[in-house]
Amino acid sequence: MKYSFKIKTLGIALMAVSILSSCTSDFDHINTDPNSLTEDQLDATMAGPSFASALYAGIHNGSYSSPGVDDQGTWGIATGILSSTFIHYLNCGYGTERNAFVNGYEGRGWTRFYTVAVPALNNAVKASEGNAEALAILKIWKVFMYNQMVDAYGPIPYTEAGNKKEKVPYDSVEFIYEDFFKLLDEANATLSGSAVTTVASFQPNDRLYAGNVANWKVFGNSLRLRLALRISDIEPAKAKAQAEAAVAAGVMQTNEQGAFFKASNITPNNLNMIVNSWGYTMTASMESILVGYNDPRLAKWFAKIDTGVYRGQPVGGLEDQFGTTKFSAFNNDIMGNGAAGNLSDTKNIEVFMASENYFSRAEGALNGWNMGGSAQSLYEEGIRLSLRQWGITDTAAINAYVAGNTLPTLPNILTVYPTLDLQDIPVKLPVAWSAAVTSQRTQIAVQKYLAIFPESWESWADLRRSDAKVIYAPLNTDNNDAGVGKSLMKRIIYTTNEYSSNKDAVTDGITKLKGPDTGGTKLWWDTK
């Protein structure tokens, strides 16, 4: 079925926000027949519920309890089968582990983003007219959710997304990034100059920060630091200026400042619902690093097989290549759905962890940027913060890990299949800070890769930018396009619906991509 971005009524978005709202005083207003409402009926009472929908759909989550938001399969396909598989956070058992785009998986996240997240965000903006602080927060969230999409696909509908026209033009990656920094600058200026501490219209519905202005300001500047590093190879001077401005304005420094979406039975944690029920497993790349480092997060994230060892599944295996061989599942008590089957209702969703900022600042320090500390001190504090986030609180254990000199190890699967092409361990450095700058950059990339887990969209973008060797190549490939093969996927291809319903625009988007619509075409900022 064809779709377009033309929205004549607010049906989809309002059905979503009505179920997401936690503000009972607006019940009658919110639950008015959505198909009878048009944009001119939006008012301030709809700002919070619309924002709630944009937050949840903007992180690619969905729930059967939320009409219009879609079920948790959106996360499973857009995140689990694509970005999480590309970077070996999990093994999905689908063709994408061999770098193949199959069954239209590339379209699930795209369609839900433009039919749910974007309309909800636009509704929130319309309903927040005249509220400077609310609009500043919405600018920050716009940058966050569009950033994931532009880094996944390349040129995308941006400026005119939701323009109610049948055809929607694509903007280039460089244009969108320019606008990102503009929006973040504006948001920081507004929030820095405001005496408002809480945006009341968002407070009941904001599952990240409950409308807290200070926290949203820190989130925005942390996002600015992330994007500055992303463009550091293509626009180094601008990257330096933006990164230093972000740090000076204040980025996340504690886990309490991190962004975690508060899950509920209406807005459940899709990862927890899916990873074990869909049969996702730990990968050989994760096993090599975590076991080799004696990483205390290992037991938090994954479970031993029945022989008492951890065993990661190599990514890129042929169908049924490993027969009945057992591989480590996700730790059901933390990363799965729990013994009672409802952990997904209470386990908050990782959106943006504070530890990432320390690794970004550490890399920035190596670039000669003023990051408020030395590369080593920032690197080590990032590790400590990540460990504490996952419940590792013993100071001696944390210090031992930071100073650890053990190396990543060969995956356990080699004891069963000794001829697999896994002998060349990707990471050949310890956790303890090295003397050589090239080694330090790799160490930062490895620990950042672990700290961002399980939020794979950012980790995928960061690995493409840095080209750090952190994960194994897939054992096999089903994609012989130039730039793909067994290498890290560079992007997601455009959806077939776009070719049929928005052909001229997607053709122009490919021109702006400056390469064919394949998984091997690098994005504007990916220059290495």
pLDDT < 50 runs, ≥5 residues: 1-37
Distance between the termini: 39 Å
> Order of strands in the sheet with the most strands?
1-2
Order of helices and strands: HHHHHHHHHEHHHEHHHHHHH
Quick one: biggest sheet?
A: 2 strands, antiparallel
Oligomer: single chain
Number of strands: 2
Report on this structure:
With 528 residues, this protein is mainly alpha-helical. It contains 19 helices and 2 strands. The two termini are 39 Å apart. The model is unreliable at 1-37 (pLDDT under 50).
Features:
528 residues; 19 helices; mainly alpha; two-stranded antiparallel sheet
Concise overview:
It contains 19 helices and two strands.
Compile the SSE list and pairings.
Blueprint: H1 11-20, H2 27-30, H3 47-58, H4 73-86, H5 106-127, H6 132-153, H7 173-192, H8 213-230, H9 236-249, E1 259-261, H10 270-274, H11 284-292, H12 298-301, E2 349-352, H13 354-366, H14 375-389, H15 395-402, H16 437-452, H17 456-466, H18 496-501, H19 503-513
Antiparallel strand pairs: 1-2
